[in-house]
Write a structure and sequence with these properties.
Elements: E1 3-16, E2 21-23, E3 28-29, E4 33-50, E5 57-60, E6 63-64, H1 67-84, E7 89-96, H2 106-121, H3 128-138, H4 140-144, E8 150-153, E9 161-164, E10 172-177, H5 187-197, H6 201-220, H7 224-243, H8 254-268, E11 273-276, E12 283-287, H9 292-300, E13 307-311, E14 318-320
Parallel strand pairs: 5-7
Antiparallel strand pairs: 1-4, 1-14, 2-3, 4-7, 4-8, 5-6, 8-9, 10-12, 10-13, 11-12
The protein binds (3R)-3-hydroxy-3-methyl-5-(phosphonooxy)pentanoic acid.
Residues 14, 17-19, 33, 107, 139-141, 187-188, 278-279 line the site of (3R)-3-hydroxy-3-methyl-5-(phosphonooxy)pentanoic acid.
């Protein structure tokens, strides 16, 4: 008998960044982070455990994966097999409804959807915190994608926790896509390289809790004027630690800086907006809804911007029992 489940999880963008591991083997974060889950960027994952399979299989979109992506998925599947007392291999089909590009956080929604679908497929009804911990072991940012709205992952934590639901503050996240290329340095390698070689890594880790507390207080108080500088400082302090690594880890491209200039110029003119940047060249711009149209057109006409994606705060990850790609609820 095959055991099947399908789950949907939304991507998230950190407003207070996670960069660095307290424990590499268990994949525990060195700093606290706080993210916004995005309704416009979701991964749908279908998992089928079957006695007919001789190994785990992973299909991302139309392409069958080998190597690192398959190994990471298999590791998560093995954890779930251990919990359920099963020895069945699984076929995983995963599909993003947003273009999968560098730094677009597909691992966050991907591993969250995989952890949820795999546990349900083997009949486990685990609490969300337990599923968040399974996702976190694969990718710490994925722990946050189990929950909708504003979500935190404390330093050293096993699982993420909700700070406020999506309805708390209807901000808009615009993603200025600046490249189609896959990034050269993945986040785990980048974090370890930064920790080993950057004299600024220790300063980043020691100041990150202050920035996190500032972001959290601003989110809880819906105070955009307080949120904006803390969000930008968190992203730039994280990148400063990477820029000081040896050799330097530079995720910025010329278009990344052009978008930063666009946001700063608009802010000078009185439009409230702030930017954040992950381990990739794209810039994510956070705005209040009444400024979204202005920002969207300014970003679209900035040199080097290929397209702009738009998202509102997204919901919790969920399980569906409809056919693949056609959620029944
Ligand atoms: O969870 P990972 O290993 O993909 O790392 C994510 C790191 C950043 O995206 C740069 C920051 C964050 O908090 O999401």
């Amino acid at each position: 008998m095959s055991r099947f489940a399908q789950a949907v999880a939304h991507s998230n963008i950190a407003l207070a960044k996670y960069w660095g591991k307290a424990d590499v083997v268990r994949n525990l974060p060195a700093v606290p982070s706080l993210s916004l889950t995005l309704d416009g960027m979701r991964t749908t994952t279908e998992v089928t455990f079957s006695p007919e399979l001789l190994a785990d299989e992973l299909l991302l979109g139309a392409s069958l994966q080998q190597g690192k992506p398959l190994t990471r998925a298999s590791k998560l599947l093995s954890e779930v097999r251990g919990l359920a007392g099963s020895s069945l291999f699984a076929r995983v089909r995963s599909h993003n409804d947003f273009p999968t590009a560098s730094g677009l956080a597909s691992s966050a929604s991907g591993f969250a959807a995989l952890a949820l679908a795999a546990t349900r497929a083997l009949g486990l009804q685990l609490p969300p915190a337990r599923i968040s911990a399974l996702a976190r072991a694969a990718s710490a940012s994925a722990a946050r994608s189990l929950f909708g709205g504003f979500v935190e992952l404390a330093a050293g934590a096993e699982s993420a926790e909700r700070v406020a639901g999506p309805e708390h503050w209807p901000l808009v996240m615009l993603v200025a896509v600046t490249s189609e290329a896959a990034k050269d340095t993945g986040s785990t390698d980048g974090m370890q390289h930064t920790e080993r070689t950057s004299p600024y890594y220790a300063s980043w880790v020691s100041d990150a809790p202050r920035l996190f507390a500032e972001v959290k207080a601003a989110v809880l108080g819906r105070d955009f004027a307080r949120l904006a500088p803390a969000v930008e400082q968190s992203a730039l302090a994280m990148h400063a630690s990477m820029l000081a690594a040896n050799p330097a880890l530079i995720y910025f491209r010329p278009a990344t800086l052009s978008v930063i200039e666009t946001v700063r110029a608009l802010r000078k003119g009185g439009t409230p907006a702030c930017f954040t940047i992950d381990a990739g060249p794209h810039v994510k711009v956070l705005v209040e809804p009444n400024s979204a149209a202005t920002l969207r057109s300014a970003l679209a006409s900035t040199a080097g911007v290929l397209r702009v994606l738009e998202s509102a705060p997204g919901p919790d990850a969920a399980v569906f029992d409809g056919a693949f790609g056609e959620p029944s609820a």
